[in-house]
Amino acid sequence: MSTSVLFIPNHPAKAANALILARKLASLAQEKGLRAEVAALSDAAAGDFSRIVFVGQLPEQIGAFPADRIAVAGLQEVSENAAAALQRVLDESGSAAQSSAAAPAAAPAAGATAVSAAGKPLHFVAITACPTGVAHTFMAADALKQGAAKLGYTIDVETQGSVGAKSILSEESIARADYVILATDIEVDTSRFAGKKVYRCPTGFALKQTDKAFAEAVANARIQGGAAASGQTAAAPAKEKSGFYKHLLTGVSFMLPLVVAGGLLIAMSFIFGINAFEEKGSLAAVLMETGKAAFGLMVPILAGYIAYSIADRPGLAPGLIGGALAVQLQSGFLGGIVAGFLAGYLALLLVKHIKLPVTMEALKPILIVPLISSLAVGLIMFYIVGEPVAQLFAAMNNFLTSMGTANAVLLGVIIGAMMCVDLGGPINKAAYTFSVGLLTTQNYFPMATAMAGGMVPAIGIAIATMLAKRKFTESEVSAGKASFVLGLCFISEGAIPFAARDPMRVIPCCIAGGALTGALVALFQNELHAPHGGIFVLLIPNAINKPVMYLLAIAAGSLLTGVLYAVLKRKDQAAAAAPAAGTAAG
Questions:
Q1: Which of 60-69, 148-157, 200-209, 256-265 has the lowest mean pLDDT?
Q2: CB of 51 closer than 8 Å to CB of 6
Q3: Which of the residues are catalytic?
Q4: CA distance 525 to 542
Q5: Confidence at residue 116, expressed as pLDDT on a 0 to 100 scale
Q6: 385, 490 Cβ separation under 8 angstroms
Q7: 279 with 366, same domain?
């Protein structure tokens, strides 16, 4: 059979680019004397084509196409050197769908080095990202690097933190990677990994169970686009499997900078007097209005990026519009969450099920999907969802503003304890998201409770290493000092190494301390205008009221955690052996 090539543009977020580049490849193939055609995925059939090239990424279902004829050409690769991309796919067809046809290698035994088909150590690339982009992002990256070195692998890790992407993965590194690990709690762009074996896990899993993460990646990675590593077709794309929690945290992560900036600007306006902002044209008024503008964008951004996490770029416009309507209908952050999920899944549904001729495919992501999904979201928000959610939000707000001391203390105990249960996990993030969302209603007490409670675990464990130094190894004592600094910065993850080694003692001690701190914050009626910053927020005037009482609440909870763990902690064998060795030497 003479060489003939069918080019199928397939990239939901960049349909027009994929079509243009597919036609460019077809033209180059024809110049080589090959038969080449371009067809939309919905119309394409394998027929007698000897090569089937997806331009962009693999589709979710490839069952209709023979795996041994398939190749993938990435958009960036074709844009930079179309001729080289064409030659590669002609030479390597079948690798995209069959690169994992062989049974996946078992996780290496201790001390063994797993190798690729070329006989070299397995090469991984990874991305780490968490909602705040501070602690888990970088701790997971370090854990993956150390784990790879221990197992004999090579790895390049890109961190997508609060200051942007660092150590960005090069095309060369991605090209030679055997596996991709996405240790992310939020959605990240994965288009550059088309045709690669991709494994997804939370940052906490990569941090706490690093060896298992590598083993799972080797055994259970899926070809980007939905094909399982075993060569079977996946039931659904990985993005859909990430679920409610991951989509919500993606929205929260994009919203957080607005909350921080807005809250601190409003707090700064009070430097000039509690009512100074009422004088038009004054600096206090400008600070107040700028802060309010930031707060006004919070809910639309939350909704927009929830939708973006679900449906990629086609979900962004309806999500932003739905979030703006939530503000207009006074349904607050609850309405924004509803609007974001509604917009995201509507856009995803339309992207999947609207079939157009290849010549009109480019209109789908920029005209048809945004228009229909935005209209649907608007109608549903106005006529179905908006009013009930607004009433629920108003009732919750009224309860929080009118509750007595006993109820406030109970809520403080709950939020403070939740912040300490899983040290940055789903329960912690649920309490944090709830507290951040209430900043838009000028309910600042839950935020004060959440941040104070979140500081307790790391500070408390550090105190324990000081009080019961003989029960800890030298490395644990050093880690305790680092944990103290992290705790002051409102980074609970400083306690994770201790919780991973001794969860049955560490977690209850942290919960007890967090609950006490939450109760005291409620009792002292502390209010916090900023959602992050830890102890350093106190440097900004009026960011928190009654700062001395706030510090007292944090100190009390941390001390309780430290004392409890110092008492309950069993002496480490390595710590016990050190003095014994010293005695023998003497």
A1: 60-69
A2: yes
A3: 130
A4: 14
A5: 56
A6: no
A7: yes
Residue 324 is encoded by which pair of tokens? Answer: 């703006």
- Strand 154-161 to strand 35-38: parallel, antiparallel, or no bridges (unpaired)? unpaired
Q: Is 532 among the domain residues?
A: yes
Q: To 10 degrees, the CA torsion angle through 443, 545, 419, 559?
A: -160
The DSSP line for 77-98 is HHHH-HHHHHHHHHHHTTHHHH
Residue 238: predicted pLDDT: 40
Q: Give the 3-state secondary structure of residue 165.
A: strand
Domain contains 584: no
Residue 376 has a pLDDT of 94
Q: What is the pTM of this model?
A: 0.60
Q: Decide if pLDDT at 584 tops 80.
A: no
Contacts 24+ apart (CB under 8 A), 136-140: 136/185, 136/203, 136/204, 136/207, 136/424, 136/493, 137/161, 137/203, 139/203, 139/207, 139/493, 139/496, 140/183, 140/203, 140/204, 140/206, 140/207
Residues 526 and 568 occupy one common structural domain: yes
What is the pLDDT at residue 318?
Answer: 94
Which residues, 6+ apart, have CB-to-CB distance to 185 below 8 Å?
129, 130, 131, 136, 202, 203, 204, 246, 249, 429
Same-domain status, 397 and 540:
no
pLDDT of 369 above 50: yes
**115 bridge partner residues:** 121
Question: What is the domain range of residue 317?
Answer: 247-402
330 DSSP assignment: T
Strand order in the sheet with 164-166: 164-166, 154-161, 123-129, 179-184, 197-201, 222-223, 227-228
The answer to whether residues 418 and 319 belong to one domain is: no
| Max CA separation in the chain (angstroms) | 86
| DSSP state for residue 99 in the 8-state scheme | T
Q: Pick the most confident of 36-45, 75-84, 180-189.
A: 180-189
pLDDT in tens, 91-104: 765 444 444 333 33
Q: Count how many domains the chain has.
A: 4
Which tokens belong to 180?
Answer: 């991709």
Question: If DSSP codes are grouped into helix, strand and coil, which group holds residue 427?
Answer: helix
